Amino acid sequence: MKKFVLSLLLMAVILPSILAANLNVIDDNEDKVMVDGLTYPVTFNIQVHNNGISDEFRFYNLVGFTMEPAGYVQIENGQTRNVTINVYPIEGLDYLGYYSLPYGIEGRMDANTDYLGELRFKIVSIKDALEVGAETIDPESQTMTIYLKNKENFNFNNMSVQFSSPFFQRQETITLTPREKKTYTIQLNKEDFKSLMAGYYTLNARVSVDNKKETVEGIISFAEKDIVTSLQKDEGTIINTKVIRKTNEGNIVANTQTVMKLNIISRLFTTISPQPDLVERQGVDVFYTWNRQLKPGEYLDIEVKTNWLFPVIAILFILAIVILALVYTKTYVQLNKKVSFVRAKGGEFALKVTVTVRAKEYVEKVSVIDRLPPLTKIYEKFGGEQPVRVNDKSGRIEWVFDKMNPGETRVLHYIIYSKVGVLGKFALPSATAIYERDGEIKETTSNKAFFIAEQTSQKSE
Fold first, then answer.
1. What is the tens place of the pLDDT at every residue in 69-88?
2. What order of strands is seen across the sheet that includes strand 169-176?
């Protein structure tokens, strides 16, 4: 069995020499690469010396790869010719790694010039042909450097690359020659990674070449930094507010301790947020202590507010409530009501009532309602604005306006009379305005009008 295997090996070495007795061929098989999924050929530059008659030769393989030149190449007797062979990828070849392609050279006229050889190349994927990486990131740095490297003897032309990581995003269109390495400086925004812990993170390069897309992965090392900053603000004298902020600007969990001192008097008027973890009294001083663990990007705000004028604050609080109540109850329509004496032909007691309606702001659907005093009737002729409803039984008069603009004034007149004499003070009820402002229903009332009747003279107020 061993002798049989050895015989096969010897035949494999000797047979090409026998078949190509008239051809000397130097193959070019060094560092040849084919990228899986792309249509670019592998190029071989071989030397062919013809010891036989002048002939035309063709180059072929029996596997199915497309080869160039596709036709015949003329090589004269005794001539050495450099021939460029392009081997194109074959569809459906599911293989990565080193590949040996048997090929032949066949003469058109002389069969003794036939040659059998091998073209060797490596088939790699895009992600295996490229390498992406980055320098270690210093948390205090504002820049970082990344790179993309072509590891193979292959030209990547017009390649679209989208870099992405927890630290940045970037889009590039680049060309990489064989073994070329390109670097990029990235501007960093600390807000993008202030909450990230120290450690290793993935750097993705989404590569697109001739509609073939693959993702190349690399590593970003985020260096450890223990950085805790303290910022203090002190504002006000009578009402003093002190704020201390501890911020973890590093990328590891940090233990912090904050101590604040107050005296036994000031502590009575002091509010503290958040509550301290420890309170200790030493003589007239009181020490407050906060112990916290802060993750990267986290902060602790301690607010200490001392108020020496609680009574003043109480008064200001009451005034604020009053002002808010006044603002809340603000009227947008003003009503003013007054009366004047009118002499009637029949000797009845009569009064002219005037209601002035003034809009302070724009209002809609304004309804003004007035009521008659007891024992009086209304004179049915009106001057100026006409009412929309008059109810003698209930003693109710109503005017309606669709809208009133700011500053607009409407004056309403009507006359009431009574056959019963009046002596002394005669009171008239308040008029009411109901209207709509910004979709809300509001109501306003007028002053009360009075008339004083005397035996010798009559006057109104």
1. 988 999 999 999 999 999 99
2. 169-176, 156-164, 199-209, 212-222
